Amino acid sequence: MNKKPFSYLYMSALVLVVLFTAACPLKVVNVSAPDINCVFDPSCRITVTDSSAPIPIPAEGTNFLQSRTFVGKPGSPANGLYGYEYRIDLRNAVGITYIPCISSMIIEFGPVVSTLDYDGDGSSDQVFVITSGGLGSIGLASADKIGNEITFTFSSPVCAGGRPGDGQSTYFFGLVSTKPPGFVTAKVKETTGTVYNVQARAPQKCGIPPYNPSYWNDGGTIQHNNNCYNYANNKRTDTYAQPGRAAGAMYSNLTCTEVYNAAIADGLVPLPASGNCPDGKAKIALFVDPGVDYHWYRLDRGGMWSHKPGATQATNLDNSGNPISNPETADRCGDWLCYTDFCGYLCCCSDEIQGQGHENIN
To answer: For residue 260, what pLDDT is reported?
Structure first.
């Protein structure tokens, strides 16, 4: 069973968990452009890849979030690692009815390399700001990490101007990962509180999880508050996630069409005709006991399938006790639930680490 009755006690416990989730401040240092170049290349010269995307603030002219990436060369301290730099540029943005200003940016980045010395003081750093030898005039007040997300708060608001050329730009600020780049959606926050989704590049976040049921089968909070939808997406929420709820488009009826489309509203994508999920995404399958319940399966690393029925334990066996090589041919009928209708496959942005999937489900 994958639906769960509302519980005030349960919701109170969830609120307490959220309240006590603390941000982890990252160490930020100011550097010059040559300092970073020398960390990534013995010759102190790096080749960069740049991309930019507009920020939909209420302004005329041009503005953008710039993403810059580069790779550490052999013989350098950052050999084989990937550098990521960002810059918000409102220099040629012109306010229409008011002067819009940006206060912070949030990006899903994952683990940050914390072993490199960027400013040459002999200690390890995590985030650098290029305050000389580059563009910009506004640095960072802080960089705080919660889970896979990092919030960069600027030392002062980054504002558009009253005419072209009068606006502001941040310095390049950056950090390092072991993973190569892919496209993600960053969140740029205006001082008014409005948040804008902007394309950026960050470490590739999707991965195929191994079958490791011990994480999910703790006999407590994780097992009892994460269902088959959580497990298929490899995303621990402790909210007994429901398709479409995070997107405000939850299913109304337990049919293939409604549950499938609700998952798409959450950001999952239908399996391409090739049968292979793109961009390192994981393959999952949906079945429905019409009018009664739904059930999801996931394809694990190694090519076998597994699932987690409701609040029970995750397993790689079907209802007859056989390993699942194909969910379509598996025994999906139990004492009173029988998932007869096959709805189709979707692709989700999972992770190699249990519970750390990246889809926005709740």
So the answer is: 98
